[in-house]
TrEMBL record:
CDD domains referenced in this protein's UniProt entry, alphabetically: GATase1_PfpI_like
Family label: Belongs to the peptidase C56 family.
Domain of life: Bacteria
PANTHER family in the cross-refs: DJ-1 PROTEIN (PTHR42733), PROTEINASE (PTHR42733:SF12)
Keywords for the protein's UniProt record, in alphabetical order: Glutamine amidotransferase, Transferase
UniProt organism field: Streptomyces canus
Gene3D superfamilies: 3.40.50.880
Entry GO MF terms: transferase activity
Name of this protein: Glutamine amidotransferase
The keyword Calcium is assigned to this record: no
UniProt domain DJ-1/PfpI: residue ranges: 1-172
Entry keyword Secreted: no
Length: 180
C-alpha cells in the first residue's frame, strides 16, 4: 500500500516522521513524502534542526486517490503551517471524503481541525490541543493511542513520541484491515 506522509517544508518532529515511516517500510508498504513545496523538508528534534528529507510528491499535484492511507506526523510548527495551506487542508479532507484511513500524532490533529474532520470523533493528541479539539466538536481522551471509527473511515491518533511504538503498531493494523 502507498501511504502518504504529509509534512510542511519545515517543522516536522523528526522521530514522528522516521519511526512511522520505517514501520511502514518494515510492514511492506511504500511510504511517500508529500509536502506543500518541492525540494526538501527540514525536520526538527524538538526546537533544534535535525535532518532534511527529499519531497517525493507535492499537494496540488497528487491526490488522496493514489494512496491507501495518510500519516500526519506532529511537531508544533508542522501542523500549524499545514493548516494555513488550502491545498494541504483539501488533501487531508479528501482522505476522509474517500473513506481512507488517517493516522495523526502529537500536534498533527490541528490540521484535522482545519479540515473539519474531528467533529463527532473521539481522539487523543498532545495535551495542549484538548481545548482546540473540543471546540471543533471532538471528544478528547488522554490515551496512548485511540482508534475512532466514525463515518466511512478510521482515524488513529496518539499523544507524543513516547507513544510511537503503540501508534505505529495500531495504524499499521488499521490500515491493513482497511485495505483488505
Amino acid at each position: 500500500m502507498r501511504i502518504a506522509f504529509l509534512t510542511a517544508p519545515e517543522g516536522v518532529e523528526q522521530i514522528e516522521l522516521t519511526d512511522p515511516w520505517q514501520a511502514a517500510v518494515n510492514a511492506g508498504h511504500e511510504p511517500v513524502l508529500v509536502s506543500t513545496e518541492p525540494g526538501k523538508i527540514q525536520a526538527f528534534d524538538h526546537l533544534d534542526k535535525a535532518d532534511t528529507f527529499p519531497v517525493q510528491e507535492v499537494v496540488g499535484e497528487t491526490s488522496a486517490e493514489s494512496f491507501g492511507g495518510l500519516v500526519l506526523p506532529g511537531g508544533v510548527a508542522n501542523p500549524d503551517f499545514l493548516r494555513m495551506n488550502e491545498k494541504a487542508v483539501a488533501f487531508v479532507r479528501d482522505f476522509f471524503t474517500q473513506g481512507r484511513p488517517v493516522a495523526a500524532i502529537c500536534h498533527a490533529p490541528w490540521t484535522l481541525v482545519e479540515a473539519d474532520a474531528v467533529r463527532g470523533r473521539v481522539l487523543t493528541s498532545w495535551p495542549s490541543l484538548e481545548t482546540d479539539l473540543r471546540n471543533a466538536g471532538a471528544t478528547w481522551v488522554d490515551e496512548q493511542v485511540k482508534v475512532c471509527d466514525h463515518g466511512n473511515n478510521k482515524l488513529v491518533t496518539s499523544r507524543k513520541p513516547d507513544d510511537l511504538k503503540a501508534f505505529c503498531e495500531t495504524f499499521l493494523d488499521v490500515f491493513a484491515k482497511e485495505a483488505a
